[in-house]
Amino acid sequence: MRLISALKTTAAIVAVATSLAATAPVAIAQEMPPRVVGAVMVDELTMAPMQFTIEVELAASPADVFAFVTDADNVAKVVDGVDAAMMAADGMSRDLTLSDGSKIKEIIHVNDADKLSFAYSLADGNPMGFSNHLGVLQVRPAEEREGSVVSWQQYYDGQASKEDLELYTNAAASLASELGGYIAGTHTGIADVTLTHTRVFNVSAQEVWAEVAENYANAHEWSSVIESIEFEDTDGKVGDVRACFIPGLGGATREIITRYDEDNLTYAYAIEEGMPPFVTTNEAVWSVAPIDENTSEVTVSIVFETAPGVPPQAVAFARTNFYMFAGFGIDDLKYFLENGEPYARQFPSPT
After folding, report:
1. Cα Rg, the chain, nearest whole Å
2. How far is CA 6 from CA 10, 13, 155, 271, 304, in A?
3. What pTM was estimated for this model as a whole?
4. CA angle 190-194-200, nearest 5°?
5. Torsion angle of alpha carbons 322, 323, 324, 325, nearest 10°?
6. Distance (Å, whole) CA 218 – CA 235
7. Contact assessment for residue 299 and residue 197, using Cβ atoms and an 8 Å cutoff
8. How far apart are CA 221 and CA 257, in angstroms?
């Protein structure tokens, strides 16, 4: 399989990629599993890397969200430059008519209302220049609240323009406007990767800041993935170090605070040890913004760079897992502050 052979270019990449395959601190298989999203067997449809994902949290039910995003009549409502979309009689393709009169055909591979999975592809030679393209829409219930989350993933070889990426972001924003919600996370890029999660917390900004920043040394009290922390106090926030034992990442990380801005409720730390060997820099940034006295918006962003020549499948796989662990972190913190106890996350048993 091309995905596995690409990863085997170095023994180090194989070791890291397989360790990142865990979605929890459990025993890990020694071969990277196939990519599966709901009812979509990604590797059977494309071997291209996942280039970016946008997640949108919506107030509507999963069934209503899936019905909306798979209805061809709604494409023009959310995608700029599309005047109309028509589903073929057999349901296996749809034709998009663009504002300039040109047409694009989308081949539909999966449309599964039970598993809330939809997958389509653009033929090579499409206006965006994607080859081996696959788009996947997966809907799931929102955790610990009513509503849904839709994940829109794009797999392809090649490089999208800034305008093309903005097209997808704008479409996600339009979807949020149509159904009531907000963009909850994005991650993009291959060599220079940015991952972002945003949540609304039902506690004040100062309460969030006190826990996530001032209590930096004790994140294991609320994080479901950090088992323990060793802390090095440098008598100043910038330069403070914590070593986090994270079984799901295969061991410990060493993190040092690089920025600490109490006025703007923002701090950052560089992860100096415990990363895959092909990751050259990795920084996490936490920002807290007050909405009102009892509500705040919290964002965690991770920016990492990789060494040149790393197989894109390895980078994409690492990116997916970094994104997942960052999501665990912000959701664990939200639950802890809103409920007064750690979130008892249930991990799968070893197989």
Report:
1. 21
2. 9, 10, 16, 26, 21
3. 0.53
4. 150
5. 50
6. 17
7. yes
8. 19
280-314 confidence digits (pLDDT tens): 888 999 999 999 999 999 999 988 887 655 666 67
With the CA atoms of 273, 240, 192 and 168 taken in that order, what torsion angle do they form, in degrees rounded to the nearest 10?
120
**Whose CA is closest to 346, among 244, 248, 224, 247?**
224
CB 134 within 8 A of CB 147: no
pLDDT of 62 over the 80 cut: yes
Query: CA nearest 303: which of 330, 281, 275?
Result: 281
CB distance 156 to 51 below 8 Å: yes
State the DSSP string of 52-79: EEEEEEESS-HHHHHHHHH-GGGHHHHS
Q: Is 90 helix (H, G, I), strand (E, B) or coil?
A: coil
Structure token pair of residue 274: 């415990």
- What is d(CA 241, CA 238) in angstroms, rounded to the nearest whole number? 9
Provide the residue type at 45 as one letter.
L
Phi-psi region of 37 (alpha: psi -120 to 50; beta: other; left: phi over 0): beta
Angle CA(233)–CA(237)–CA(243) in degrees, nearest 5? 50
Count of positions (residues) in the chain: 351
Q: How high is the mean pLDDT of the chain?
A: 82
Supply 140's token pair. Answer: 């799931």
Q: How far apart are CA 319 and CA 339, in angstroms?
A: 30
Q: What's the rounded Cα separation, in Å, for the pair 134 and 80?
A: 20
